[in-house]
Amino acid sequence: MTARISGVNHITLAVTDLERSISFYRDILGCGLRAVWTNGAYLEAGDLWLCLSLDKSAAPSRRDDYTHIAFSASDADYAVLRQRLLGEARLWQDNSSEGASIYFLDPDGHKLELHLGSLQSRLAHYRAHPDKGVTIVET
User: What does the chain look like in DSSP terms, one character per residue?
Assistant: First the structure.
């Protein structure tokens, strides 16, 4: 058997204002604050362990590519969170993918997405739309 990773352990984001970022992830996105120290914080988003690391030298993210982190929510929570984000966050892209999504920036310019769906629903979408040119790899 080939060794392989089992999942994402945690994600660390460099932030320039720790309190502002804690407030965004806790109050806007509903992440659970689990630990705070002088230069950082740990938050929980479902099974995701998110670390905010204070780095005053970090320049706001100005990536022009599609690199981003996508979060999940229930249908009911998605609607509430989407409304919050529309009032509090800058959007960086319109949704053109399968499933409802809102693409937004955190206070330091990290590209984020809130998405309804799963890998299974995305694969089912492409199975139903072979004209999209995506080859599904069956395991």
Answer: ------S---EEEEES-HHHHHHIIIIIT-PEEEEEETTEEEEEETTEEEEEEE-TTPPPP---SS--EEEE--HHHHHHHHHHHHHHS-EEE---SSS-EEEEE-TT--EEEEE---HHHHHHHHHH-GGG-PPP---
